[in-house]
Specification:
With about 500 residues, this protein is of the alpha/beta class. The protein is built from 15 helices and 24 strands. The longest helix is centred in the first third of the chain and has 17 residues. The radius of gyration is 23 Å and the shape is globular. The structure holds adenosine monophosphate (AMP). The site of adenosine monophosphate has 18 residues, from strand 13, strand 18 and strand 19.
Length: about 500
Amino acid sequence: MTNPLYDELFGIHAGKDTPFLHLADGEVISHSAFLAQAGQFANLLDQESIAPGDRIAVQVEKCPEMLALYAACAQRGAIFLPLNTGYSGEELSYFLDNSGARLLVCDPAKEEALRPHADASGAMILTMAAGQGSFLDAAAQLPAEAKTIDRSPEDLAAFLYTSGTTGRSKGAMLTQENLLSNARTLAEYWRFGPQDVLLHALPIFHTHGLFVATNVVLLTGGSMIFLPKFDVDAMIGGLPAATTMMGVPTFYTRLLDDPRFTGDLVAHMRLFVSGSAPLLAETHTAFEARTGHRILERYGMTETNMNTSNPYDGERRAGTVGFPLPGVELKVTDPQTGEAVPQGEVGMIEVRGPNVFKGYWGMPEKTAEELRADGFFITGDLGRVDEDGYVHIVGRNKDLIIAGGFNIYPKEVEDVLDQQPGVLESAVIGVPHADMGEGIVAVLVPKAGESPDIEAIKAALGDVLARFKHPRHFEVLDALPRNTMGKVQKAALRERFDGVFADRATT
Ligand code: AMP
């Protein structure tokens, strides 16, 4: 009689008074105190007749209680469905209807606004925030001992909706084995142990903060400095007590922008991990120059958990996402034929392994489009494997530019632009062009206090890039639009600069 996810991540810590969460106000929550609350939550789910397989939608601000609800769902076999706190009521209706959630747990401040949406889709509503809410009040009356429901590794544990920058968001169905296999692999690959203290400033509605960070710490019995969100002051304050940190690239660039972030501050640290968006090679280099640490970059996604990682020992190569993780198969294929391309050539990245999800909830056609019958998932990322086996991500397939019949991979152009004097970073997009199909637009962000010389940049491109890859239009912005996970929102840029070639048929 077992429940692998609950037993391995949570149950094993029963009775341990070691710290699990260090909160910003100095409070420390031990593993046993955390489990006691999770047990009360599990009893509340039972009391509300939540059955195994029922979906629990959770839209609450990051707090320890939200993790305890994750534990409670695992214990009762319910499906944990965390949602981005930025979603509006209208958007929430979609998730409730699409998932058929039985219960919505939301922020007390949003209850009134969200109740009509919950009612319309037939979900119960309870509230939760740090230390308060009707869910906590009801659970506080219940015993901490709860019955653990039997589950198998193939049972569903969580739905994570894709960030869906185009089209509707899809509910990725993740099994216990998807989550556990990845946590085991990462814990070993990155050498996590009970002595580790992870500085955690990521959101916990996303795979990075919830599964990569939290599951690895839970599996190995370590602890986390649990910050409500990224804040440079709080990070600088937390680093001295941490041994490891996981972040999106913007965490690293913002830390580097602060003079208090010194080599001395982090000399004791064991590991810095980056992912969810590309880490600029320049950031990697600047970080090493400042601290002596080489950031370890890895690559994954909602549907697959983590796929590749730079090595713990071995060379952490800037601008790459390392090697396929143990147990993960990765191939690069021709988007048209699906056949593997020769090593070194760019194509679609496909992955297979125990980490890969079971499909999109209620969307068999979408699932069939992206998940092959042989188990390979077509990630939608374009990449290549270099001669040493390191995987390079070149961009999303949908960001590929086709101008005058030629394929242009934005990353290749961005890498050249990023090296130009005065340029901090860039984004290259394709927008409609009467002659060429798509015309290439370069969006540049200047380094602080500098203004890049566009004419000089145009001239410099001539030396390194074939002419068909040259941007025909340049824009300068203070910052690139990014989502919470630090991903550049190219769709927003395409929309914004949609008409720039409208009256210039021959540029
Ligand atoms: P999400 O499902 O929100 O986690 O987004 C997954 C996508 O983020 C991937 O398909 C990649 O396009 C991108 N991504 C994640 N990690 C990296 C990385 N290290 N470098 C480049 N892109 C990444």
